[in-house]
Each structure stands twice: as structure tokens, then as C-alpha cells.
């Protein structure tokens, strides 16, 4: 069994914000593959499954995601190497997509929470670049990650999310 985790914050207030690009990537993936999310949350996450793959959007806040991921890992007996986490990275230029089989949290509080809860950083991650230096300098980091995409960025999102879709498929099939 594999576990695919999109990071974000619950609630409509955070829809289409930079910090919720992990949720957005999974929603895009489900739409393109014609999958459906289950209505009720289980173990603190909205979930969907296809064959031997679970997809979750934790419903606690971004910086506290680790508990939900650890609960799923234990409940379904999933190895850390079979977990893929999708998150934003404001240090990467908007639209860049980086994939790693393991690594450091690199300042991402969601990944730090997962590392602490799992006791390892040996899980795959896809970081989606949300960087916009001009906007970030005006807002500061906290307001920036909770800001919505510019019109220009919105027009580029489908191609970015399509790239992520292929990376998720590679992980699922790999």
C-alpha cells in the first residue's frame, strides 16, 4: 500500500492559497483521473483510494500534519518509503517542481511535523515552487504563504499541476 499526502490548511478561507497547493495538486489529480473523494473524514483526513493507494488531505493545520500521516502509516502498516508528500516551497521559483526520494524539511513546517511524527525523513516528497520574490517582500513570509496566486500564476497552474500529476503516477506505478 502507498500513501499520497497533499499538504494544506482546511477550510474555504485557504482554498487556492500558496500553502494549499498540495491539496490543489491532489484535487487536480482526482479530477483528471475521474476519482472521487470520500465524504467523511477518517483518521483526521479527507481520503480517497484507488487499488492499493490511499490519497489524503489532512484536516488539521499545515504545521501539525505529522500526526495524521503517522496515524495512517500505523493504521495501514505503510512503510515510510511508500509515502509521498506534496507541498509548497516559497524558496523555489513559481512553477518549478522538485522531486526527492527523501531529504530534509528545508524549513517547511509541514515536513518538519511529519519528520518528527514518523521519526524519519526517508519518504518521498514533491515540492511545488510558489516563489514570487516581489510579492513576498511586500507581504512577509506568513502572509505570503497564505496569499492567493496572481493572475499570471493562475494561468500557469494547469501545466504545473499536470507535471505533478505525472510525478504522482510515476510514484504510484514505481
Describe this structure in words.
Strand 2 and strand 3 form a beta hairpin. Helix 1 crosses helix 6 and helix 2 runs parallel beside helix 3. The chain has a single domain, classed as Peptidyl-tRNA hydrolase (Rossmann fold, 3-Layer(aba) Sandwich), CATH 3.40.50. The protein is globular and about 45 Å long. It has a six-stranded mixed beta sheet with strand order 2-3-1-4-6-5, with helices on both faces. The protein is built from six helices and six strands, in the order E-H-E-E-H-E-E-H-E-H-H-H. The protein has 174 residues and is an alpha/beta fold.
Taking all Cα atoms into account, the compactness measure Rg is 15 Å
Q: Any idea what the shape is?
A: globular
% residues in beta strands: 15-25%
Number of domains: 1
Which structural class fits the helix and strand makeup? alpha/beta
CATH level-4 homologous superfamily: Peptidyl-tRNA hydrolase
| Biggest beta sheet summary | 6 strands, mixed
Please provide the count of β strands.
6
